[in-house]
Amino acid sequence: MSRNRRGLALLVTGALALAGCTADPAPRRESRSAPTPGATPSVTPGPAGVGDPYFPTAGNSGYDVERYTLKVRYDPASDELRGDATVRATAGADLPLFHLDLAGLTVRRVTVDGVPARHTREGTELVVTPAAPVRAGAAFTVQVGYDGRPVPLRNETIGEGGWLHTADGAVALGQPESASTWFPVNDHPSDKAAYDFEITVPKGLVAVANGVPGGQRLAAGGFTTWRWSEAAPMASYLSTVVIGKYRTSTGEHQGRPVFSAVASSLPRGAADGSIARTVAVADYLESVFGPYPFAAYGGVVVDEPRIRYALETQSRPVYSANFFRGGENTGVVAHELAHQWFGDSVSVARWADIWLNEGLATYAEWLWAEHEGRNTAQATFDQEYTTADDAVWRVPPAAPGAANLFSESVYQRGGMAVHALRVTVGDDAFFRLLKTWAAEKRNGNATTAEFVATAERVSGQQLDDLFAAWLYGTERPPPPTRAG
Fold first, then answer.
1. Which of 134, 148, 375, 397 has its CA 20 to 30 A from that of 466?
2. CB count in 10 Å sphere of residue 26
3. Using CA atoms, how far apart are residues 39 and 352, in angstroms rounded to an integer?
4. Could you give the CA distance from residue 125 to residue 73 in angstroms, rounded to a whole number?
5. pLDDT, tens digit (0-9, with 9 covering 90-100), for 178-207
6. 3-class DSSP assignment, residue 421
7. 385/246 Cα distance (integer angstroms)
8. Other CB atoms closer than 10 Å to residue 71's CB: what's the count?
9. In a 3-state reduction of DSSP, which class is residue 267?
10. CA 274, 281, 27, 234: dihedral to nearest 10 degrees?
């Protein structure tokens, strides 16, 4: 995620953030309360919540989703959404019942393996009781038919996210949760899945989602269906739909499709030029992080006042138009594209580890600026280290607490921690570490403890003191000392 701080992409509403980047004149990031370093969420069969220390009721336990097939019809004139979701999953335990996250919308029918199932609602939980318990290890398929007017979610510490009705369509976007406002889902990044989308909208509107474009076809009643498919495992908060009047550009790069869209309400210029640099930025980052992890490239620029951030929606980041009001801005593009490796391909196992996403993406901005002939990474570190306010040093980025999940510490001190690591272990070990981490954790989830262990293994150094000071300390550490 990005808000708008010196071209950074990170969002903070007040002191909090929703998605991954905000485009305010002085942008910020997100935050929450601290768990034990290295702990992983506990899992209990069936009930709501995977046991994330920061969001105890987030997600659902007892099963692992393999694929979502989502067929959604949306009419902006009435703000009515009708959906048919197919969820293919495997039971991790015997499941006499299980939960899916779904906020606000009315459920009309549920089947499990083709057999009608009983369903009830408990707040934003859809509780499904199949005709017969699903046995541990069994694959099963849930189908849910639903409709209604989507309502955004509001989290006390984060703000609003999810399906937002706009002047000419809608945008589904947000972090740490948004998916449950428009389809039934296991809404926690620890359960990643593949996605197929069919988005049906009035003819003349564009409907963009994640992954590889599958073309369009005419549908009944003057509507058009847009198809998209994301085969790589994706965390639910990274799913997106953008509907409205957009000018689109298509192409191919390294055998992968490129699809980007810019709101038609924006004049041609900075936004189009910045998004056109997507593949150039991705190619540079590939030289640093290793192979680009997904089957498509692109980006979407939205002109919606409530969205003042950018988010690393998988394979196709979404950017607030505010990032480009002052001219071209490839820094925010570098931030969100870096997340394709760190945040999307390698996802957090729990929200306390968000610095792994934001610290590495922030550092990617510094590297991109140096590559472009602007400030060196060292110069940017020196500036951040000198000017950071006391709050940055009081909040440990690897244990920020729920209320500071997207705080400046997570982003800027997270980036400084990455540079301190580079200085300490030397460039050779550091850049080998980045590629090793991206390769070994590709398409999976990771924790800070695993990152520390990998850094020590690759560098051959004991790094407890470094990480204790930069990730968990509550005072400004001394500047790092260069290896050798």
1. 375
2. 11
3. 10
4. 22
5. 999 999 999 999 999 999 999 999 999 999
6. helix
7. 41
8. 18
9. coil
10. 110
